[in-house]
Amino acid sequence: MTDSAPTPGTAAETESAPKPPSTSRPWRLVLLVLALVAGLATAYWIDVRQRLSGAQHELASRLRAAEDAAREAGNAARGAQDSLLASQARIAAVEARLAESQSQQLALEALYSDLTRNRDEWQLAEIEQVLAIASQQLQLAGNVRAALLALQLAEARLARTDRPQFVPIKRALARDIERLKALPAIDMAAMIMRLDSLVAGVDTLPLAFDERGERPAAAKDAPGTGERGFWSRLGAEVWGELRQLVVVRQVSSPEPPLLAPTQAYFLRENLRLRLLNARMSLLTRDEAGYREDLRATQAWIRRYFDPRSKQTVEALAQLKGLASASVSFEMPTISESLDAVRGYKSRRERTPG
After folding, report:
1. Which SS3 state, helix, strand or coil, does residue 207 take?
2. pLDDT band at 49 (very low <50, low <70, confident <90, very high)
């Protein structure tokens, strides 16, 4: 479609019509606004960029700090790990030494147990031997003092060993000691020694009528000539021989016991046998036989021996003292203590270790 050429009338109309307002001003406003917006956006973008750059720098610094901290932490971790490994090595060494010391301690404890066991066995064997001897002395000789000393010795030895296993033995020893202490105050050993002394002194007792006379002392030489001294000595010797032919002795008994030498010998032997029988009766606690033997011994000494001599007086005093003692009590035993020691030993042998 082609534009038609303006006609003259149309041109006139055109020139006479009012002109529209110009459109350049709004466009300038728009451009101004756009320029302002663009400036603001640019400023904002610059600000944001600056902020981002600062944030990046801060983040980078923080990352570097974190890396440094991580590096330090790694170093510290490696140091800690090395320390841990060293500590573990030291702990392993300490554990090895501890195990070695424990094994040594167990060995020492076993050795000490064996030594203690052997020492206890030796000590109990000694105590058993002492108590067995004391029991024999008590039963055979009535030696209460020796048995009491043996029990007290065993009690003192066990008191030094503070072991609870020995408590039953200590109790048995205490009971036997109390039983022996409760006995009458009679020293059987001393009485036996006195009887033995009397037996040994039988031969020294002088008889009431001794056929052996006393020879007079030799006369001293009187002052004078040698011939006078000779006759004086001769006369004294003759007179002494004449005195030996007849002996006159005053005795208190109405019937003087005149004994021949053989009879005197058998008298002393029978007297000795009586004293030995009294000793045996004392050991067996036969009071009737003991008193009868002592009574017969005293009667024989009074009848056949010199009552004025010192030996006779002392012998009669000894017999009187022995006869006044009572020997009829029942002698206890220390079997409880012996049984306690032997029972402990047998139980220990059945359970070794």
Report:
1. strand
2. confident
pTM of the model as a whole: 0.41
Q: Say how many C-beta atoms besides its own lie within 10 A of residue 307's C-beta.
A: 15
pLDDT tens track for 290-328: 899 999 999 999 988 888 899 999 999 999 988 887 776
Dmax over CA atoms of the chain, in Å, equals 247
Ordered DSSP codes for 279-321: HHHHHTT-HHHHHHHHHHHHHHHHHHB-TTSHHHHHHHHHHHH
DSSP string, 107-136: HHHHHHHHHHHHHHHHHHHHHHHHHHHHHH
| d(C-alpha 200, C-alpha 195), whole Å | 9
Three-state secondary structure call for residue 75 = helix
Q: How far apart are CA 347 and CA 143, in angstroms?
A: 31
Residue written as token pair 């000490």: 112
DSSP sequence for 30-69: HHHHHHHHHHHHHHHHHHHHHHHHHHHHHHHHHHHHHHHH
